Amino acid sequence: MFPKDMLSLEDFSRDALEDIFQRAAYFKQKDPDNFTSLKGKNIALSFWEPSTRTRLSFEMAVHKLGGKVVRVTPELSSEQKGESIDDTVKTLQSIGADALIFRHSTPGLFNRVGSLVDIPLISGGEGCYRHPTQALLDIFTLREKGIDLAGKQVIMVGDILHSRVARSHFYTFPLFGAGLTLVGPPSLLPQELVPSRVDYSYHLEDVLPGGDIIYLLRVQRERQEKGLIPSLSEYAALYGLNEERMSLLKQDACLMHPGPVNQGIEISAAVIKTMEQFYPDRILFQDQVQNGVFVRMAVLDLLLAGRSG
Ligand code: CP
To answer: Which atom of ligand 1 approaches the CA of 259 most closely?
Structure first.
């Protein structure tokens, strides 16, 4: 029922996704650190781009399941001596890794390297292409809050062009019955990127009042080519969630963000403060981070279940 690798959620049946959610809920409800399903297993973490949430929550998940983590330090790896990623991945399998958790900037890399090894390859974020566990933990968080996605409207705001989170959600939000509208400046939201089941707008004020879930994306400064946005302050003025725009939201609209948050760009510090103080159930940023541990425990548990070695 489960594919060997987790690279894209399109590879998983709806039943398989439900199994992951159920398992994550079980782990969250129990939450001791003494599960044993990864006892004797060594999980390699290989992050070639910066990460706090994904890397550390996978690491926490391995610990909670009784496994051990082997970390690849890119700047100390033999890639510095010319070794290819293909050979690095094969090396990790040969030294005894039971699974690889990988983040890399190159879209399309993981399908190739996954086919080079027998052990599971789990994406921790692949360039601008996919971030499957982020999409899973987002859906899990909404459902945990009692939000039935069927018929709900998700407004996703920001740097759609560079977002692997957005590309994963092009699939998941419609799969679970939600409408998805993308919003951003035309340079970060090219029409050809918008899938058929998804809407788009270049005017945030037009769509905010209809949103049940406002999903803010980080402007990925590290991936910007010159001139895509005139300046961050202009972006914030047109697309940032400030107090004025907050007044347009539905009374029960929720805010989500995959993190890390650039305060003052995609959302103002004042909006965060107001939401945390007066509407803590509607700002889900920390719930998303917390649930990342349990969802990643579930992914590891189910992908490695029954594998020998
Ligand atoms: N959401 C996310 O992927 O965050 P990190 O880059 O901190 O892992």
So the answer is: 1
